[in-house]
Amino acid sequence: MTDADIARQATMQPIDAIAAKIGISADELEHYGKYKAKIRPRASDKPGKLVLVTAINPTPAGEGKTTVTIGLADALNRLGKKTLIAVREPSLGPVFGIKGGAAGGGYAQVLPMEDINLHFTGDFHAIGAANNLLAALIDNHIHHGNALEIDPKRVTWRRAVDMNDRQLRNIISGLGKSVDGTLRPDGFDITVASEVMACFCLARDLEDLKNRLGDMIVAWNRRGEPVYARDLHAQGAMAALLKDAVKPNLVQTIEGTAALVHGGPFANIAHGCNSLIATRTALAIGDYTVTEAGFGADLGAEKFIDIKSRKGGLKPDCAVIVATVRALKYNGGVAKDALTAENVDALGKGLPNLLKHIANLKNAFGLPVVVAINRFVSDSDAELALIEKTCAEHGAKVALCEVWAHGGKGGEDLARAVIDACEQGESHCAPLYPDDMPLVDKIRTIAQKIYGAADIALSDDARKTLTDLEKLGYGNLPVCMAKTQYSLSDDPKALGCPQGFTLHIREVQIAAGAGFVIAITGNIMKMPGLPKAPASNNIDVDKDGNITGLF
């Protein structure tokens, strides 16, 4: 059966019953039908254990990180640990583009799958509306006399739409008559790349979100000074649009585990984690919270700790690195169409990618590590034995994971290893660098300690921007690296564990409201395009409203 078939055959419990399991009364819910609800954010001085699920660098073979996250939470509940999941909402762009749906897989899924992938509770639309309200206010201010002396050619705020549309990356707006606005260069980002999304996911509450929105730099005036959203009095109306969206969304897994699915910034442009509000809420309610970071540990886990944990007061108790035999063989040079054949030699050549991530999490961040091998039927005993032996030699526990086929039962070995790591081990998790380190040294530290680079090379523009940002008082912010997810380096074709390379920083941007500086490498963009045969080609709905092709 397909993932969609499995999801459709599952018997969902009313959301009131899911809420009751975690101590939330029906009166506290804001219902979106029978199976979805928003809940009141909360936090606790004595939170439960936090498990961070990350992975090796993603490959076309797929690693199943979200599937493992969901299955692990189900398994922890089976072992008597009150566990919640906190994960991201899918973006419509990837859903209709190349990725398809993003709600787990097999018997480890969050439900209702179709709703979560298509509109859900409208959070992303609210974020897009807030983004575009600000864009309209900027152009309206320029049209009505421009008292702030905004330079139309230095408006950095772009419009947003939650769809992959390369045609909108760079446009000229304000065409037509003088009453139709000021002619200027413009463009669109995908909604999940908007700074509004980053602010949304790093805010502690609605008031904090409103303040962050006001702190966003949207343009520069003719004197070269920053213009903030608060200068346009935009933050109040933007926060009004987001007052309901900021509440976490409660849904369920196939096995009835409570899942908070909320927020979702791009992982290679922003910090790539679900909302801080949802994570803190889950920690306040459960004994265990299982959350995930975007892409591989070099992007996702690093940003989770250096940005989200730093700002949100989080301290993961354990990290789970998801790997597959076939993905490691891909890193060892095997073509995608040959990954199901046994190839121990290629596996050995690909293992350094996994070992680098283990070393980073253990040594750079001080986290206990468990490796989850997401098992496929094509995996041979010899291949699995090599992974287990090699990981043991490097001080990492290994557990086979078969949650796609067996749900929580297939993740019990992994759950036991996680419980042992959380309750017997000790997390010394801390950020990689101090706040007061110069921005260029923060970039260099990430490049050398996490990626394995020899050094960094900055373009003249990037170097000047870093200098200017420190003069403006932003030197204490953490750095958000915008880099390919496919490699530890900035070259997507450099698989395995490249070493001694130079990481090239072509551009630096400021996300002052979100509270980080973005260092952009390679061909990273904020508006993806559709592939030649987009996933939307396979999506359909019948006369009874049944959707097909999302998975």
UniProtKB/TrEMBL annotation:
| A GO term for molecular function | ATP binding
Question: What stretches pass through the bilayer?
Answer: none
Look up keyword ATP-binding and say if it applies. Answer: yes
Carries keyword ATP-binding?
yes
Pathway note: One-carbon metabolism; tetrahydrofolate interconversion
Q: What is its EC number?
A: 6.3.4.3
Where do the annotations place ATP binding? T59, P60, A61, G62, E63, G64, K65, T66
- Classification via InterPro entries: Formate_THF_ligase (IPR000559), Formate_THF_ligase_CS (IPR020628), P-loop_NTPase (IPR027417)
A Pfam family cross-referenced in the UniProt record is: FTHFS
UniProt keyword annotations, A-Z: ATP-binding, Ligase, Nucleotide-binding, One-carbon metabolism
Name any Gene Ontology BP term.
Answer: tetrahydrofolate interconversion
- Catalytic reaction(s) noted: (6S)-5,6,7,8-tetrahydrofolate + formate + ATP = (6R)-10-formyltetrahydrofolate + ADP + phosphate
Q: What family is this?
A: Belongs to the formate--tetrahydrofolate ligase family.
Matching NCBIfam families: PRK13505.1 (NF010030)
Known HAMAP family for this protein? FTHFS
Q: What is this protein called?
A: Formate--tetrahydrofolate ligase
The record lists the organism as Cardiobacterium valvarum
